[in-house]
Design goal:
Helix 1 runs antiparallel to helix 8 and helix 3 runs antiparallel to helix 6. 60% of the residues lie in helices and 7% in strands. A hairpin with a 2-residue loop joins strand 1 and strand 2. The strands form 3 sheets. The protein has a 3-stranded antiparallel β-sheet. Strands 1-2 form a two-stranded antiparallel sheet. A two-stranded antiparallel ribbon has the order 3-4.
Length: 301
Amino acid sequence: MKLPKRIADILKKKEEFIDSQRSKMESTVVKQQSKLFNDIISRLIPELDIKDGQIQESAKNYRLISVLDKTYKDFQVNSASIFLGDIVKTTAKIAKLSKNYFTVLGNIPERFDKVIETTDKMINLRLGLDGGKLVRGGFLQSFFDSNTIGTELKQMTSKAVTSHVDLKDYVQMLQDKITGTEEYTGGLERQFQRYGYDLYSQYDAAYNKTLGNEFGFTYFIYQGGLVKDSREFCQEHNNKIYSVDEAQEWATWRSPTTGEVPSYLGYPGYDPLIDLGGYNCRHMLGWINDELAFAMRPDLK
């Protein structure tokens, strides 16, 4: 038995929306990297003390590192503003699609609207949003304030000054560090790969986990389809029905190939109902009522 079309359609629509917004975020990240590189080139390079094409070890050049620091901080503020607008709109649409999904499921208690309101506030605060604004000390604020890239650029520049690096080589080093090369991705891309690209899927998972718990759902379908590089875990679980209790065992799931627990599962803080197949997992949980779960998987009775 397949999922009823009305339920499958909403899950598919949400999946496609999250994929499109993630792609949009990736594109924005690449553009912002280029902007950072251009800003540094235009503000720092013309002021450097250069002799015979080499950066000089001078008091002026050491002081100019503060210009680099200021340029990066300005970039952070501007980037946060750009990303925040998209994040607020996207999470609001995800929440709306989730509300529609649970409405279609039926058997929803009268307190539905109250639960939705409470869930909106709780999940947004977990993300670090309150009324569309960043919460000081919240996840998003801390993410946007991360100075890892800025510190790396300052250290590289200080070393370039000390070592009398050729200006052309320094510019190339900056470009490689910020926008990346064929061998590795740019600095902002690496930051978003670690914390940002899963933001929408994890927001959706956390939101729906909360609603599923509030409404007493204990079964779900592992929804999302497969791609060329889908992990073994996702290949085994794709489009199958599971209970919440069964999901608790995912942290110790062993690969049929290696016989070991993959590194993308069971790490500290791993939540099977939110993290699913680990970082960059494209799957989502479609909560279903007992009647549908038993019809699709009779052994659950």
